[in-house]
């Protein structure tokens, strides 16, 4: 392809998809294609999709329909469906979307360069499934943004939560080696990232394929890599957290005191139907040990309401849990039945209006809790990693170590304040979902 060819990648879903899109972009740029922000200008459009809930999946097809319109004026345009919907639909997507050119599963992202040449020849391609050997060119990732270097350490998922489609779309678990991960971390530090984020569906289930090293050892090794100022990891699975991992978090101040720990429900009976493999008491103990390790620890979680057969009492247990544990934020979803999963057989469906009502009540309760927690930060000073320009002109946005969003005016006298660097901010006002502050010159607490 000549250098004037352009590509456009749209990303939905989780951080793993975000990183896959950065990988796709990097590989396409190596082939001489240029990125564009306007799909109307592109010669290749890739939609990196998410199938975790039904709504997102439906939207994929209407978006592809919009992109097909561009083919009227740009005959050479190629359109690809990537991500979890691609893996799930496979060849069927080609029938459903008549002029779709490519269906690319998440485990085949590394092959895009060879695929591109075949697309050029007019071939319609389905590349799905989970090949044993996969390419991961970490040096060809078009790293988006300047503040956070993401590193996949474990792909796929071996759990079998009864509501979840991810094990089918992302395949069985595969861990990258310690050596490979550390080389990538060093490369990212060298590139200038102050924050490293380790990624996986069950990130703390990582094991070195060649030794007995586990996630606790990896946490230590990455935290002790010179230049890693902040270390995060997502998503942890409650049952896979060991005391050794908690110890590492306690011992390394550059491991951020923030853990995302999906609990899904506050009722043991629902957790059993979900096949999660832990009890609420175990979950509470884990949270306690994390808070003991680092008093400033902030925790967030995922919750599903309206799981098949969820009773008023079971939902009340979720409300109680949220009240007691004071999460810094929650991601709450209405249960969505997914093809090939066991959950629909595990209880009667919950009426849509009841599920809606439960979701609203849960979010309202959490909003009050978050407002209270955030207000307690007013007057304190925080170290903020600047992540981007704010929506209001002349403002910047950043994250505290606890992952809270902070907005503050970009003031000349406290510069150098640049994207991807640290600044100290005094928190002046708390909102439920963010903090407003002012950059100051003194060191942060
Ligand atoms: N690996 C992560 C979650 C992956 S999916 C874990 O350990 O939980 C991200 C979130 O989407 C899940 O935590 C769950 O809360 C939500 N989710 C997954 N399947 C869902 C479904 N069928 N309906 C509603 N929410 C779902
Ligand atoms: Fe899904 Fe459970 Fe794995 S929520 S991603 S099956 S840990």
Brief summary of the model shown:
The chain is α/β, with parallel strands linked by helices. Helices cover 33% and strands 21% of the residues.
Entry keywords:
5-stranded mixed barrel; binds S-adenosyl-L-homocysteine; 19 strands; Rossmann fold; 6-stranded parallel sheet; binds FE3-S4 cluster; OB fold (Dihydrolipoamide Acetyltransferase, E2P); alpha/beta; about 450 residues
Number of strands: 19
The fourth-level CATH homologous superfamily of the domain at 6-127 is Methylthiotransferase, N-terminal domain
Radius of gyration (CA) equals 22 Å
Shape: globular
In spatial order, strands of the major sheet run: 2-1-3-4-5-6
pLDDT averaged over residues: 94
Estimate the strand proportion.
15-25%
> Which architecture of the domain at 6-127 would the CATH scheme give at its second level?
3-Layer(aba) Sandwich
Largest sheet, strands/sense/barrel? 6 strands, parallel
**Helix content range:** 25-40%
Distance between the termini: 52 Å
């Amino acid at each position: 392809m000549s250098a004037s060819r352009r590509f456009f990648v749209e990303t939905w879903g989780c951080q793993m998809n975000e990183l896959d899109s950065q990988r796709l972009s990097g590989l396409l740029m190596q082939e001489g294609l240029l990125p564009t922000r306007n799909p109307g200008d592109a010669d290749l459009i890739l939609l990196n999709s998410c199938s975790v809930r039904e709504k997102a999946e439906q939207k994929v097809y209407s978006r592809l329909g919009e992109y097909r319109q561009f083919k009227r004026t740009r005959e050479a345009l190629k359109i690809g469906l990537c991500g979890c919907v691609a893996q799930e639909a496979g060849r069927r997507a080609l029938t459903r979307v008549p002029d779709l050119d490519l269906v690319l599963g998440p485990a085949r992202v590394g092959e895009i360069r060879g695929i591109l040449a075949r697309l050029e020849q007019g071939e319609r391609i389905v590349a799905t499934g989970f090949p044993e050997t996969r390419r991961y060119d970490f040096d060809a990732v078009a790293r988006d943004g300047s503040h956070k270097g993401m590193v996949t350490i474990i792909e796929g998922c071996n759990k079998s939560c009864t509501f979840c489609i991810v094990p089918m779309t992302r395949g069985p678990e595969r861990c990258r080696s310690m050596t490979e991960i550390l080389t990538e971390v060093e490369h990212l530090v060298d590139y200038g990232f102050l924050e490293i984020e380790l990624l996986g569906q069950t990130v703390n289930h990582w094991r070195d394929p060649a030794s007995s090293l586990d996630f606790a050892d990896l946490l230590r090794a990455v935290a002790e890599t010179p230049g890693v100022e902040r270390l995060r990891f997502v998503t942890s699975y409650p049952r896979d957290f060991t005391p050794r991992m908690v110890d590492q978090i306690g011992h390394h101040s550059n491991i951020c005191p923030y853990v995302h720990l999906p609990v899904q429900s506050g009722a043991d009976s629902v957790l059993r139907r979900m096949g999660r493999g832990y009890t609420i008491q175990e979950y509470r103990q884990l949270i306690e040990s994390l808070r003991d390790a680092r008093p400033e620890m902030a925790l967030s979680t995922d919750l599903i309401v309206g799981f098949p057969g969820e009773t008023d009492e079971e939902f009340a247990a979720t409300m109680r849990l949220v009240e007691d544990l004071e999460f810094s934020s929650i991601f709450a979803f209405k249960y969505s039945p997914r093809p090939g999963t066991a959950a629909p057989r595990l209880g009667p469906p919950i009426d849509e209006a009841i599920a809606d009502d439960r979701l609203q009540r849960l979010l309202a309760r959490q909003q009050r809790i978050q407002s209270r927690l955030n207000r307690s930060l007013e007057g304190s000073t925080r170290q903020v990693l600047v992540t981007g320009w704010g929506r209001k002109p002349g403002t910047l946005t950043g994250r505290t170590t606890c992952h809270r969003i902070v907005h503050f005016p970009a003031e000349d006298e406290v510069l150098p304040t640049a994207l991807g660097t640290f600044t100290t901010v005094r928190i002046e006002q708390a909102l439920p979902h963010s903090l407003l502050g002012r950059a100051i010159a003194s060191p942060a607490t």
